[in-house]
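Table 4 source record.
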Amino acid sequence: MDSFVLTPKLLGVIPSAEPRMVKSRRPTVLTNLELAVMHVVWRAGQPLTVREVADTLNEGREREALAYTTVQTMLKILREKGAVKSEAGEGRAHLFCAAISENEVRTTMVGDFVNRLFGGTASPLLHHLIDQGAMSREELESLRDLIDRQLTDEKEDGR
């Protein structure tokens, strides 16, 4: 029976001579509340305090107002995910602004959705939306125009 010896190298006391893998940026998939916070930050177009984010989120909210500390925690989580960045503001307040675009989040989240629910293929999603009558005539015509343009571009590019 082989014995397993915990050496200083295995314990991380002595650095390994082998190069470490650089941690890649994880695609940003957000919860509903995180997404609501991000919408406030994106719409503002300028750095906001926790109080400003909380006040905006709570405007016209039918449910119980979100506590300041809840919004503060959401912004901390979003900062850890790399979705917002913060800088010191006046006094103890911090200012938060978007570190990723709405389009980056949309692309990641739609890709995640298509992967999980439709096996990575977008076609079944489109079929579902059309079959369920979820798209208006205008949306269908717009989709057709987009498909026609894409096919024309591919033809011109020789694909």
